[in-house]
TrEMBL record:
<dbReference type="InterPro" id="IPR043076">
    <property type="entry name" value="Fusogen_EFF/AFF_dom3"/>
</dbReference>
<dbReference type="Pfam" id="PF14884">
    <property type="entry name" value="EFF-AFF"/>
</dbReference>
<dbReference type="GO" id="GO:0044291">
    <property type="term" value="C:cell-cell contact zone"/>
</dbReference>
<protein>
    <submittedName>
        <fullName>Apple domain-containing protein</fullName>
    </submittedName>
</protein>
<dbReference type="GO" id="GO:0000768">
    <property type="term" value="P:syncytium formation by plasma membrane fusion"/>
</dbReference>
<feature type="signal peptide">
    <location>
        <begin position="1"/>
        <end position="21"/>
    </location>
</feature>
<dbReference type="InterPro" id="IPR029213">
    <property type="entry name" value="Fusogen_EFF/AFF"/>
</dbReference>
<keyword id="KW-0732">Signal</keyword>
Length: 464
């Protein structure tokens, strides 16, 4: 008799959940790490509760929805509480098995906010290093330096193949001073202007368009057992939040459903326009930079990007034979001594002939160093079709949580922020910039602080 009762209880516990479509008894299926697990800090969250009704024939289904707003790197925490005490004795064991997760701590963290900017224009360029060599001729009839041999033409090479990373153009400058020549004569100056990529470095210019916004949520369910936390369930969800609300299930039992929407434009965003990134030795690109730069159909020598790579992989100057003749300025100092001065009417180049001040360019810092809200900004895929901007701060994201379980309800919890001690140091660098280095001890939560202009506590003057 006792054996029959025992078998009946076992069958009820194992078969009844299957028969009614219920999940099996919960088990710790997550592999636990060796180091102690500490749940994230639970942020205080304002919750708006709503009740959704759905009629299907004669049946009416009611679903509870919790609406919250969550910021980047913040965590919303909640528990499942039993909302009814009505239990049939026949199913008591089954309900107890399903209720094991009632004390679990469920955490939802907005871990990442990304903007994916499509690239509509792209080309490769370099900073040109310019080497100039000139010859002066006093004889007006000499063909060594003449318009025929030096106007609107390339330099003469010993072979017919131009170097892959070299451009050389000839320029002709007539009617020069007669210094060093016979009185009353006019000298003429012929130059060769050679362009090569400075330090063999190259850059990729790109035009960014309006971005698409993605957010990443980390969901973990914890159980506190035998004096330590254990992970019972976890999931990482990446959602596109532009457009309509996206709905996905959080847990593996498909009871918690997450709805995400942006609720408007993010507080920070890179504007559309031209940017560039240095190529690195590993074949990828470094962090994104913003500076005045030529678009793909421009050829302005006042902007970056006028010395670019062509379809054959050669760095060249578009219409260089004509452009260089116009932008290269030169004058004779003494024709007999072959002394002359040479100038280039352009920006963003290196003058090899001026060792004291060769660099005529300055590159802006990466946008991640200029804008504190950017954690990183770079081209991530090998095809170079998108720039991914990862945020370090951002506006709140609208989140809706639905619990598809009639016997349970959601109860939100939060932790108090605390701090044991802190120390601060004011650091002054070599440019007289002042930085405040704050160190906190045994702290958790969110710290809000202001830097005031005076030690007077009643003062309302603050630095922006």
């Amino acid at each position: 008799m006792r054996l029959a009762c025992l078998l009946r209880c076992i069958l009820a516990a194992r078969l009844i959940p299957w028969a009614f479509g219920l999940p099996p008894p919960l088990a710790p299926e997550i592999i636990q790490p060796f180091t102690p697990i500490v749940p994230p800090h639970c942020t205080k969250t304002a919750v708006i509760k709503s009740m959704l009704s759905h009629a299907s024939g004669d049946d009416q289904i009611r679903t509870t929805q919790m609406n919250i707003r969550i910021g980047l790197q913040n965590t919303a925490c909640f528990r499942l509480e039993n909302s009814t005490n009505e239990r049939d004795s026949l199913f008591a064991d089954v309900l107890n098995a399903r209720g094991q997760d009632q004390g679990w701590l469920h955490t939802l963290t907005l871990s990442q906010l990304e903007h994916h900017h499509p690239i509509s224009q792209q080309y490769e360029f370099a900073i040109p290093e310019v080497r100039t060599s000139c010859i002066c001729e006093c004889d007006a009839n000499s063909d060594v330096c003449s318009a025929r041999t030096y106007s609107f033409t390339h330099c003469a090479y010993s072979n017919s193949t131009q170097s892959l990373q070299e451009n050389c153009f000839r320029t002709f400058h007539p009617n020069q001073a007669d210094t060093g020549c016979a009185p009353g004569s006019q000298s003429k100056l012929c130059c060769e202007v050679n362009f090569t990529p400075y330090q063999n470095k190259s850059y990729v210019a790109m035009k960014l368009e309006q971005p698409t916004t993605f957010v990443t949520f980390d969901y973990v369910a914890y159980d506190y057992t035998a004096g330590r936390w254990i992970e019972k369930d976890k999931n990482t969800i990446r959602v596109k939040v532009d457009g309509q609300t996206q709905w996905l299930f959080l847990d593996r039992w498909r009871r918690l459903e997450l709805g995400v929407s942006a609720g408007g434009r993010a507080s920070h965003q890179l504007e559309t326009g031209m940017y560039f990134a240095p190529n690195n030795a590993n074949g990828g690109m470094d962090e994104l930079r913003q500076q005045t730069i030529n678009e793909i159909n421009e050829n302005n020598f006042e902007k970056l990007g006028w010395f670019r790579k062509d379809a054959l992989g050669h760095f060249t100057i578009r219409n260089g034979k004509v452009k260089i003749q116009r932008m290269h300025l030169a004058k004779v100092e003494n024709c007999k001594d072959q002394k002359s001065q040479s100038f280039l009417d352009a920006h963003h180049y290196v003058d090899y002939n001026d060792p004291e001040n060769p660099e005529r360019f300055a590159l802006e810092a990466a946008v991640g160093r200029i804008y504190p809200w950017i954690r990183s900004a770079r081209v991530t895929d090998g095809s170079g079709r998108h720039v991914v901007v990862r945020h370090s701060e951002g506006t709140n994201v609208q989140v809706a949580l639905q619990l598809h379980e009639e016997t349970y309800s959601l109860s939100f919890v939060h932790d108090f922020s605390k701090i044991d001690d802190f120390s601060g140091t004011v650091i002054v660098d070599f440019k007289s910039n002042r930085f405040f280095n704050l160190t906190v001890y045994n702290a958790t939560g969110i710290i809000h602080g202001t830097v005031k202009k005076t030690i007077d506590k009643s003062s309302i003057d603050e630095f922006q």
